Structure formats: structure tokens, C-alpha cells
Amino acid sequence: MRRANRILFLVVMSVVVPLRGQPNARIGCVPNMEYLPTLVANPEQVVSFHCNDATPLDLIHAAAYQTRVPMGVMLGRDPSRLARARRSYNLDRVSVREALREAIQGTGYVVEEDGEVLVLMAGDVTERQKGLLHHVLTGFKPGLGETMAGLSFLLTAWVRALSASHQGLQQAFWNQRTRKALP
To answer: In the chain, helix, strand, coil percent, each to 5?
Structure first.
């Protein structure tokens, strides 16, 4: 009986202690609930965000979590710009585009649409960088059963070869890799 009580105590403590360890406060200004993988339906794709001390990135996260609209951020020379400035936001049921425009106000970023994806683009992004963003990788055929780590490595190699500024550098990169692989 005593052993059963000890086991019951351990089971209860293993459930209660982690629950008490989770913060009831908000993470930044986004309620914890919005971090759940599924939310209530939001077919209007509206955003509500009320915070007295938030960064533009907090509002961008909230907009993404609440609407599940595909978004991307093309960082500029100062990658921390969206995470540094703090201000007050009071948005209630605004469109996702309006929320993003409010978030990037005064940051030098612009909102662009690429198909169904909203892209927040830094004002100092070069034409070469924009070209890389819109480049379609032809011949990129990952193998079946490829791991995420393997896909990440493969895609990184493709993008590095693509972004090399000179054709000769690309050739040297690929030739060096094949030479090491061949006996």
C-alpha cells in the first residue's frame, strides 16, 4: 500500500509540477494559446493584437499564428531591426496586410506579395538578392526518405553555388566536392 501511494505521489507530481512551471503570463505580447498548432477557424484572416511594449517581430508572429498566411522575411544589412524597436500596438480584427503594414512602419521594410506568400522585404535588399529569392531551382530532386538535415545540407549547397558571384567560383566549388567524392 505504501509503495502504491509513493507511485501515485510521483505520478501526480510529474503532472502538477510541469504545469505549474509553465508561465501563465504572455510570451512577449502574444498569448500562449496562439502558439498552439491548431486554432479556431479564422477564414476572414483578421488579426487582433494589443500590447504596450512590443517589437514589430512580435506583431508579425501574432499575425502569422492567427491567420496561418504563408509569410517570409528578407533581412537586410541590419537583421535585428524588426526585433529592436519597441512600441505600443492596439489592433482589433484588422486584415493581415494591415497588421503587417503597421508592424513595419518606420523600419524601412515593405510588404510584397509573391503568389500567395507575403514577403517582408528590407529596403536595403539588392537586386541580386531579390533575384535569388525568385530563382527556381531546376533539377533539385531530393531522394525519397531524405531526412530534414540531409535536405537542409543539400539545399544549402545549391543556394551557395547559386549565390556565388562568379561562374568560376561555382565550378571550383562543385569540382572540389566531386573530386573528394571520387576515388
So the answer is: 50, 20, 30
